[in-house]
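Hi there,

I know you've been waiting on this one. I reran it after we fixed the sequence typo, so this is the corrected version. Both the input and the resulting structure follow.
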Amino acid sequence: MAESTFTAPQLTAEQVQHLLVQPLEAQSVFLAAGPRIFDTNGSQVRIPKLGGPTARPWIGEGELIPDADVAFDEIVLLPSTMKSVKTLTRFSNELARQSVVNLTTALQTRLVRDVAATIDDALIAGNGDGITTPKGLLNYNGVQTIAVAGVLSLDNLLDAWGAALSANVNMASLRWFLTPGTFTGLRKLKTTTGEYLLQPDPTADGVFRLWGAPVTVTPRIPITGTTTRATKAVLADFSQIAVARDLAPSVVVLDQTFGDYDQLALRVVARYDAAPMNAEAVVVLTGITAT
């Protein structure tokens, strides 16, 4: 009997596809929501800010006009104490030469995504102090809050929308941030006759909207608790949020640093900070029962 690939598979070369399968991951959403981004060369960013309105009394003829003092404030981003996100991965020259895919490109893609995800988590839900690590959107000081204390309803969304209106925000820049479970729960709401309250628009471009504002559905909003699980939602005017960017995720190939080991390395560094320019333009809905 003639030998074939069936009788002697050990002698055949394996067919390895030159394709790297990547896992399904959450996409970066904070920067895509439209905040105002200020690029810097590493120094801190100071954004001057006007204080409250001045007194405007009615003055009669010949009466003394009182002085009106104008208050000023500022927003400080990226202080010198602000840390960076950094990662370093080493690999041997043998592995780089013998890999069936471009190993450097594959590792670069993996590391940049991981660093970007870390930044996104920090800018959305980070509980930093704003001095060494960024404070996230859900934890800004001075924002408007609405206590839901139960399942999120359309009335709760209207309350948030009304709070945004009272703050004189730019309604065209409003955007919702919801967890997948919260948004799915809203989509399940029905009338007494069984029709869904949120009907998709067949002429729309596929962007989710609630009361006219686009919706970002993201799992980066945390769910807390075990028996009673709770989460949050946000309605924010992102044109009133400032992001200072020192370094977008940047990659450096280190081909000499670990030369004694005949190894290469990839280093990825990123440095961001964010803060609201007008905290009242952010409405946080708290105590939402997670589904």
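Quick highlight: The radius of gyration is 26 Å.

Best,
R. S.
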